[in-house]
Structure formats: structure tokens, C-alpha cells
Amino acid sequence: MPEGDTIFRTARALGRALAGRPITGFRSTYPLLTRFHHHAPLTGQTVDRVESRGKWLLIHFSGGATLVTHMLMSGSWHIYRPGQPWQQPRANMRILIETRDYLAVGFRVPVAEMHTAQSLARHPRIPQPHNDVLSQSFDEPEAARRLLAQTDQAIADALLDQRVLAGVGNVFKSEICFATGLNPFLSVSALTPEQAQTLIAAARKLVAANVLEDSGDAIVTYGGRKRRTTHESDPGASLWVYGRAGQPCRRCAEPVRRRIQGKDARVTFWCPRCQPMPNGSDVDG
Ligand SMILES: [Zn+2]
What we know:
The protein contains 7 helices and 10 strands. It has helices at residues 4-18, 31-39, 117-122, 140-148, 155-160, 170-180, 193-209, and strands spanning 23-28, 47-53, 56-61, 66-70, 76-80, 93-99, 103-107, 111-115, 257-261, 266-270. Strands 1-6-7-5 form a 4-stranded antiparallel sheet. Strands 2-3-4-8 form a 4-stranded antiparallel sheet. Residues 224-231 have low confidence and may be disordered.
């Protein structure tokens, strides 16, 4: 599943290709979208802007409607020049937005809904902008308060909770815990307000560093802003702990550990020496 930084980059690329140019064509294999287009044609409107909220991608049209998509595991948006061959079969096309200069094709996008500003604001699962770590209006103190309220969760699970904050995926989860020296299995109830603020600040910093113009497509936490070489074969090469089970910690050389965590059984990586449990007890691997 793409992380928030991936969706952010997709939204940025789509916005650059589509925004401000008249839409010359719209097609979809989803009856609800075609019916909407039939009643209130998107052709002739422009795309005002394209926005990411956590793992949701929002295309705002000048007529006031917003197309909301979620990629889940299978979906992707591609941008093509007219006449350029597509990288996926036509049968995978779910949504097509055309302008004179570009085509935006949503391939196998499993979730696609048309919204008004009102229905968007009421949507129970699409994060509001102030919850998104990559949003300009992200509110750190408020996010720290929401985090501290999750007293029945471990901190790694709470970081993935879209009600707490949006944009942190499973890779960043482990990296944020390492960066703050906190054990991912520690209960939120054991956090001080300062630790909660540090976690939220680290989340924002790490995810934001990965949407810089030159940050490429891979997640980089280890090595800071340094541009990584392309075609790394090891997925953990640019990370502190994620994907590095059994390999020496980059700070203390203790072997990095891996464990399945939470009700959604997501994999977690951590260093037992750099991220000890406060009472000295170890986490059974
Ligand atoms: Zn370590």
C-alpha cells in the first residue's frame, strides 16, 4: 500500500499536469461517476487543484465537485501525453481525465467517489487537512493531544491510526519510533506530553523530507537528505530499521528485531538497545 508521501507526490504531479487547463474529456467505468458527468459535465471545467490527504487523493474541479480516490493495494494514476502508449492494458482503466496537453489515467483504482464540499467535510474516513502530516494546516499540538488520547494502543499502532494523524504508513511507523528512541510496543498511556510532541514532530519531519523535489521514489530516513543512489537492491538500505531484521543497528550494532504488531498484524522493526522498554523489560520477539 502506498504511504502518504507517495500519494503526495502523485497529487503534485497530477496537479502540475492538469490544473488550470480545460478538461476536454472524461470517462469512467464506474456508473456513478459517468452518471455524475452526464448530469454535470466535467468537460469544459478545469481542475482547480489536486490534493493528498493521508492515502486519499482529491481532484477538485472548478464546478465545485471533488473526485476522491483511494489506491488501496492495486490502484495507480498515470500521466501521459496524447498518443503516448499506456503502461497498463486499457482494460485496467477506471477513470480518464483529458486535457489538450495531458491524459490522467486511473488504473485499477478501487475506490472512486464524487463529492461536494459538504459531503467531503462529513466523510468519516477521509482525513481533514489539519490531520495530514503533509498539509500546510497540520496542527502539531492538536495531533499530539489526539495521540495521547489513544491510551489503549501501543505507540506504533497509534501512529498508523488515521483518526490520530494521516500520512504515516507502515515503513515510517518504525522509522519514527527509532528516530525518537521510543519502543514501538510502549503503550501510549506511558508517554509524556513532551514525548508525544516529539513523535508528532518526527513524523512530520521524516515524511516531509521524502516529498522534497529531489527525494525520488524510495523512502529515505537514514542518511538524511543525501541523495541516494538509484537501483538499491536492499529495501532497507536507506532506512534506520525497517526491513533490516537481524542486521546491526546503525547506531549501536545490536541486531535489529522484527515482530508482527497490532490488530492489523503489521510488521514492526526496532532496536532493543536504542529503543528499550522504560521498565527494562524486553519485548518477546
Ligand atoms: Zn541500536
